[in-house]
Q: What sequence folds into this?
């Protein structure tokens, strides 16, 4: 054990211990010196100097410096310098911002419609943002000091993970709280733990060994650590948080360390039925979802037409999955239910019920899938009217608002999942969907509502403990009563608190059939549905794919109708999804698919059939390859460099709204491939050894194919 005075506990009730007894991994423990009753939702644990972390890593830091081409002892200085580093930020949940930031950059927030921030904010966001105000401790005297105080920037906030990069050298802090506990193929020890966890519903004790989620605030060369402890308490000697610190000389070295620590070799075994046989594909889950085709305007006939057509032509799902003998999901999204909170089939839309629809899907040889938001209630729902006591309430007794959605008619409320009756209601709902209706793929959306801040009226414990208990119970349905496997896609999910249970997870904000949503961009909505925003987040969380999560980057688009996306943009979306994600879903209407090679009114634009064929050929080139990505060191935001692990393929991505000039070192004449904006078609050219290449906006350029 190593104790460092330079690592400041910041809390007299908290003890901080460093442990480097387990080889190359540095662990940091925060333990309660005495009993702590958490009166506030946020608890500050300590402040850590980056130099102290490098010193504590010892030989590991020196080896990483040498491998990265750094002089010995320089890592701490470069990683501590705001001018010389990138900061990898991970947002609170799936829709929150993720990506590398430079010195003065910060994620935007909605100003005119602040309700929209509920879709991305930490439950104690206000407290975190106040803590992140960079104000001088002393009273400013000079004009310069006063100006600095007036135009201050907030310090950088990140959740679960915080990464620092100087050139290729990487230092990462992560919360050690994401061990995968339950799967149908887990060990006897895992199952014993699950029984202990499940027993929490039958007594007053909170769930054991599950810790509150961690947040970081980066202040110059120091990192402050906070935990979200709403409703919780800690006995003397109890662990409050565990952190792991990794240092690596390059992207893949870091990803390998993370994957090894998180047990990625068996972490996803209970989901392998969705992407077997592995010899045929490169481990992609995929299928069809109704949302970006019909949105809520679905009914039995519309869904039936899509289902009947999915094997009748050369649409992407049929061409890439079904004809290759791969499993494919057919997921019914929002719009099937009476309303949010009343999870019965709308009799006007689905008069024969959802059970019959699941049977129809299964008879077609597809995996029946369905959407629901289990922790939400609309104020006018029958459930809310019948059980007002189930609502999570604030200190004034008012229902806690979990969001605002105009598609649903306005405000939406959160359930109080500390109550036994609420838990029974939720488990009965999942049991019905899985064991009565027969769905084998459940998209659980808006899961952040399960960790909202409020006054819990049920069992004792913190918000994170109630959430863990519910998620563990839901995961008991990973096998249906007839023995068939069941998969859960988590969406709008707090990443740290959900990853142990449902690692198949959305990795960004909703995409859209349009590149941007100008109105929501103008007001600063961070999690706005837009192709560009989704790409930024998916790229920002690429390091977590297949190490901690099976990332769902949302759908790809091959269609030509009902979209303003150009071929360049569709190609970019599809390639990013395959290179940095683990799920390829589409919402293109299979009933409207035609095999026409050209579009009559636009012969330069690829038809859906031609685009699909071209895309699948591209996918064949990258199958079996693993890709890394990082932000380009230039000044342009939205410019990224990617590279394959074997070094055979590399290139750049341009998400900005302007053409960019990129630099690439070519040792020999190499084929350059890109989708050009001018021709809107795939083309290959053989450049000379010039290192400068123009890149159109919203496109990618690939070397090596």
A:
């Amino acid at each position: 054990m190593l104790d460092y005075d330079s690592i400041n506990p910041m809390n007299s009730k908290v003890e901080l211990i460093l442990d480097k007894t387990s080889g190359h991994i540095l662990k940091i423990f925060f333990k309660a010196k005495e009993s702590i009753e958490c009166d506030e939702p946020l608890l500050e644990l300590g402040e850590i100097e980056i130099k102290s972390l490098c010193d504590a890593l010892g030989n590991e830091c020196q080896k990483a410096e040498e491998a990265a081409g750094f002089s010995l002892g320089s890592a701490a200085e470069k990683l501590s310098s705001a001018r010389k580093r990138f900061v990898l930020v991970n947002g609170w949940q799936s829709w929150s911002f993720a990506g590398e930031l430079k010195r003065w950059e910060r994620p935007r927030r909605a100003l005119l419609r602040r309700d929209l921030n509920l879709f991305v904010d930490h439950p104690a966001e206000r407290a975190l943002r106040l803590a992140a105000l960079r104000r001088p401790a002393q009273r400013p005297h000079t004009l310069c000091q006063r100006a600095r105080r007036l135009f201050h920037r907030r310090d950088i906030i990140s959740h679960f993970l915080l990464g620092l990069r100087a050139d290729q050298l990487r230092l990462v802090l992560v919360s050690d709280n994401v061990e995968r506990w339950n799967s149908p193929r887990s060990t006897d020890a895992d199952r014993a733990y699950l029984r202990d966890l499940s027993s929490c519903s039958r007594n007053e004790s909170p769930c054991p060994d599950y810790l509150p989620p961690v947040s970081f605030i980066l202040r110059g060369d120091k990192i402050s650590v906070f935990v979200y402890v709403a409703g919780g308490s800690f006995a003397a000697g109890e662990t409050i948080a565990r952190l792991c610190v990794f240092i690596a000389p390059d992207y893949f070295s870091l990803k390998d360390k993370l994957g090894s620590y998180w047990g990625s070799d068996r972490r996803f075994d209970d989901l392998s039925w969705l992407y077997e046989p592995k010899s045929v594909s490169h481990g992609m889950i995929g299928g069809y979802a109704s949302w970006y085709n019909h949105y809520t305007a679905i009914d039995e006939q519309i869904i039936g037409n899509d289902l009947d057509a999915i094997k009748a032509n050369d649409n992407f799902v049929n061409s890439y999955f079904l004809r290759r003998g791969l499993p494919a999901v057919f997921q019914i999204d929002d719009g099937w239910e009476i309303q949010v909170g009343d999870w019965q089939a709308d009799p006007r839309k689905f008069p024969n019920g959802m059970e019959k629809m699941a049977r129809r899907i299964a008879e077609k040889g597809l995996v029946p899938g369905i959407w629901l938001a289990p922790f939400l209630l609309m104020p006018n729902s029958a459930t809310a009217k019948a059980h007002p006591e189930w609502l999570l309430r604030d200190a004034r007794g008012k229902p806690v608002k979990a969001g605002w959605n105009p598609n649903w008619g306005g405000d939406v409320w959160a359930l109080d999942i500390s109550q036994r009756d609420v838990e029974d209601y939720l488990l009965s709902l999942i049991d019905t969907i899985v064991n009565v209706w027969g769905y084998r793929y459940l998209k659980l959306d808006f899961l952040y509502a399960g960790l909202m801040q409020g006054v819990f009226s049920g069992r004792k414990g913190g918000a994170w403990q109630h959430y863990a208990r519910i998620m563990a119970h839901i995961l008991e349905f990973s096998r249906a009563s007839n023995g068939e496997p069941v998969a859960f896609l988590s969406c709008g999910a707090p990443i740290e608190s959900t990853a142990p249970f449902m690692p198949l997870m959305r990795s960004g904000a909703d995409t859209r059939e349009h590149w941007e949503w100008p109105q929501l961009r103008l007001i600063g909505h961070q999690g706005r549905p837009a192709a560009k925003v989704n790409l930024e987040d998916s790229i920002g969380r690429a390091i977590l794919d297949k190490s901690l999560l099976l990332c769902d980057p949302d759908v790809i688009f091959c269609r030509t109708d009902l979209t303003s996306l150009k071929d360049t943009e569709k190609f970019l979306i599809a390639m990013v999804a395959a290179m940095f994600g683990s799920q390829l879903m589409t919402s293109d209407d299979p009933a409207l698919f035609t095999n026409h090679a050209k579009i009559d009114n636009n012969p330069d634009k690829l038809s859906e059939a031609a685009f699909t064929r071209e895309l699948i050929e591209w996918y064949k080139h990258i199958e079996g390859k693993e890709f890394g990505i990082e932000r380009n060191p230039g000044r342009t935001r939205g410019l990224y460099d990617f590279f394959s692990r074997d070094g055979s393929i590399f290139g750049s991505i341009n998400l900005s709204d302007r053409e960019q000039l990129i630099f690439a070192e070519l040792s020999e004449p190499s084929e350059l491939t890109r989708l050009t904006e001018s021709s809107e078609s795939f083309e290959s050219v053989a450049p000379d050894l010039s290192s400068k290449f123009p890149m159109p906006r919203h496109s990618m350029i690939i070397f090596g194919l």
